[in-house]
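quick one, 174 residues, struct below
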Amino acid sequence: MNLIVVIAVLLAAFFLYLAVKGKSKDDIFRAFGLDPAAYELISSDLGKGHARKRIRWRGVGGEPDAIFRHKRSGRIIVGEFKSRRWARRVRPREYFQIVLYIGIARAEFTSNNVLGVLAFKDKVLEIEHHPELFSNLIQLRAEVLASMKKKKALNSRPLLSRCRFSLPFKLERF
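---
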């Protein structure tokens, strides 16, 4: 009986360790479909032991799951990891989030060579910069702050119906 209890405690401790431990650098590169030899990891919110970088511009900011820089070209990759499967669709909020990160990273790193990556469990999508949508999202800052202050949305119309855009993402990997 004591042996069973000891084994159960050891198994519980092992599974707890697996759940808590952070992702290694190679796991992060693999999640975004990138070659560790070609890219350097600037920032990561995935796992422990990695530097984190908060990016901001004009009062809007965030912390992408990962930021990479290509070692030769200097291209910046802003990555956002989603733990769900792709299911052939990108949710609007996921797309808005990565478009904001791309635009803010362009300003923060003073580079037009920025690409967004949405990584799902089973698919990696490249997202290009969408300047018109980025501008519309930045202009919503005042509305968001006022809505937070009143604890009620000032404009109840969904963002999708307020601005027209298409989803210009590629379905191939790098």
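DSSP finds six helices and eight strands in the chain.
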